[in-house]
Amino acid sequence: MPARPMTPERVNRRWLFEQRVDGPVGDHNFRWTEADVPSPGEGEMLVRNLWLDIAPTQVLPLLAAPEEGGMTPGSPMPGYAASQVLETRNPRFSRGDVVYAASAWEDYSVIDGTGYWDATKVPAGVSPELAVGTLGITGIVAYFGVTEVARPRPGETFVVSAAAGGVGSVAAQVAKILGLRVIGIAGGKAKCEWLVSEAHLDGAIDHRTEDVAARLDALCPHGIDIYFDNVGGEVLDLALGRLRPNGRVVLCGTTARYRQATPPPGPSNYWQLIMVNGRMEGLLGKDYFDRFPEAMTALKKWLDSGQLRAKEDVVVGLEGAPRALGRLFTGENVGKQLVKIADPSPGLGRS
Amino acid sequence: MPARPMTPERVNRRWLFEQRVDGPVGDHNFRWTEADVPSPGEGEMLVRNLWLDIAPTQVLPLLAAPEEGGMTPGSPMPGYAASQVLETRNPRFSRGDVVYAASAWEDYSVIDGTGYWDATKVPAGVSPELAVGTLGITGIVAYFGVTEVARPRPGETFVVSAAAGGVGSVAAQVAKILGLRVIGIAGGKAKCEWLVSEAHLDGAIDHRTEDVAARLDALCPHGIDIYFDNVGGEVLDLALGRLRPNGRVVLCGTTARYRQATPPPGPSNYWQLIMVNGRMEGLLGKDYFDRFPEAMTALKKWLDSGQLRAKEDVVVGLEGAPRALGRLFTGENVGKQLVKIADPSPGLGRS
Questions:
Q1: Which uninterrupted H or E stretch holds B168?
Q2: Which residue in the set A257, A264, A280 is minimally distant from B273, CB to CB?
Q3: Domains, chain B, ranges and CATH?
Q4: pLDDT tens digit string along B177-230?
């Protein structure tokens, strides 16, 4: 029997997980392979991945050994993506639909629409880029982190770290739209300029060149009502130490502890929570799954009115996916990190 | 002019703060003096202190230098007490009343009824001992820590540290009364026996002789819904690492960091709050001041019905006050630490 001919379009290029993360993240943690395009079984779909959603939490399963719940070397690297349905044996979706779903770092995936979050159809008026960016999990998590976890009151002082990142840039702007005084912490002059001139924050602190403690004292002379934490580490401690009565800390990320086999110490100032009757609460988007449409509607309205600026950082080409993940930890990304693989095919139709 | 004669009854024996705390707490941190009995000014009262309320937080102002907000050496050591009114120029209270008020470590104090909490009159049916113990701030804080901060649901697993202490013993029993599964952590066999046989907890862990992590795994195989923290340190980390989805940590005390000039690291596992959408919240009794009567009514009802056991640890004599404070940090106390100075005088009447 002759080997089945593989046309270039139908080769499935893939990134497999290869080596545990213990330091910088990049190509060396993955293996590039090519494989046949798979076929969907009952209830499944074959999709063409268009845009990959790159998030810091993706590194977590790469840190641990398989016996500790970490990922098994040789597995395809999973991730959320905006993808177009090529073949479907799942009644929820039609051929041509663009879906936002649990997929993988590869050209083609067979998916069943389940995952940490169930797959959703991207409406015709929303670009795949926006669907995995500001209107994706990142934006939704930022929205609920501000509205539901922080529960802000107008006029309060809101500080956010990694403020020019995917979650931070949305959280900062949502807080600003809701009438808070917002200070962003970010690394580098360009990010800080963006925060003030484009995102209209009340102040920005460049943690690379400025003394964060001194700048927090200057910009928040009465302390901090809400700290939206995307980094952990020393900045979390500084914020806790300045928390006002009934202050809240929204824990969204701990990049300071990612990439380390041994977790660093926790925030010594956590006891300030007792002194000010403060609250530190984790933010898990999953708990808001039923309310995703509410967040998307609010964010879309603000995007359309120009009050909210979408900010995406795009690496072009599947080859760049490991590098895109690495950028989240070097602070290179400005805005939500995405990987663009392909445009949707208009010929397939879109229901 | 001859010196005014001092009858033994009217000498005011006092403990003054003398030396900052930086290690074990005891007599060496204070100075014993005798002085004249003061006279009340307008709006003030002269009281005879009967029972001192000894609480771990009293050590906090003794840790810092005066320029950092710490107490000035030579000042009378403040503290809450049940005291009897001898003379009053305050219309809220009558001669003979027993009041629970901000007072000091001395036989006689002039007080104005204000303080961290305003003075309250102890009802005739309540002993001074109970007024500063289970029905005092300690019991009230424990009550609101469970009902308002933890917001428990019946059947949840509740773990409390320093479970045989003042706050812990009440928190553990309130959780048990509300239908939770309660595991107490305490130091020593006698305390653990009390927790199980008298306070009717579902299990006890002796942190002096047992492996707390292994025992938590055995007694809480499905994890911890609520951890009521009175100690901080390693136990807080162990509990955070076992927190279940939507778990809560009530931060009530951090004895692990008291007595140390340099705060120890915070809980490394705090990031578990993100993983489980958990919440860690400080408990400050002050915020519930308006609702103190509600807590007292509930606690009194449970005491009267026998569901709640009051547990006090009494040092007799004003001389023992520094030692009583020190006992909180060596773990010697079983139940709420008090100092008994005197009985109320029936001859004064009690309105």
A1: helix B166-177
A2: A280
A3: 8-133+310-348 (3.90.180.10), 137-286 (3.40.50.720)
A4: 999 999 999 999 999 999 999 999 999 999 999 999 999 999 999 999 999 999
